[in-house]
Amino acid sequence: MTGDTSFFELIVKGGFVMFPIGLCSVIGLAIIIERLYYFRKSSSGLDVFFNSIQELLQQGQKEKALDYCKSFPSPLSKLIQSGLSEDNLPRWKLEEKLSLAGQEEINTFGKNIRGLEVIATISPLMGLLGTVIGMVQAFSKVAEYQGQVDPGLLAGGIWVALLTTAAGLAVAIPAVIMLHYFEKKIEVITFQLTKYGQLFVHLLDKQDS
Fold this sequence. Notes:
The chain has one domain (7-208). It contains 8 helices and no strands. Helix content is 84%, strand content 0%. It has helices spanning 7-13, 18-43, 46-58, 62-71, 75-84, 91-109, 113-144, 151-208. The N and C termini lie far apart (78 Å). By secondary structure, it is mostly helical.
């Protein structure tokens, strides 16, 4: 491997398997960026939002509370909005409705996460496949020339074969890290929605008493 070998030349040397690995890297990066933006937009300012809803309801301004929910794009606002639209339901039915609404919102956080998991799983496997194919080709040369092969040439064939494994791992490792990060964020948001849902029910109970 020469010092002036370009990145594109490495991809070409790695063989056809490098192209699906490259595609996985592009898709994985797109998923990570999109999910980071969505999580940041959807999980910020929840305390401020709920405190504002609480103040409006304590003042008896249900319509303003509904309007505020519509102007605040977040899973919590949709949850509270679904509860405010049917706050005359029996409390057990309201809790059930909030639970279903919360689950629907949590599912939106998991969007595309499965795709990232698939990329994290198949990228190293594709890299290993490329390496195996490259090793087979390298050692077939040894068999073809009955072992009379320049060791330098054989070593060159082996490092080229190993390129796909390195590429697969380079894609899979950040994908796995971000996958665990997103799963942890979903756990935190699930807890927050459950907490605020219960606080909302208790707030309505106080309003009725």
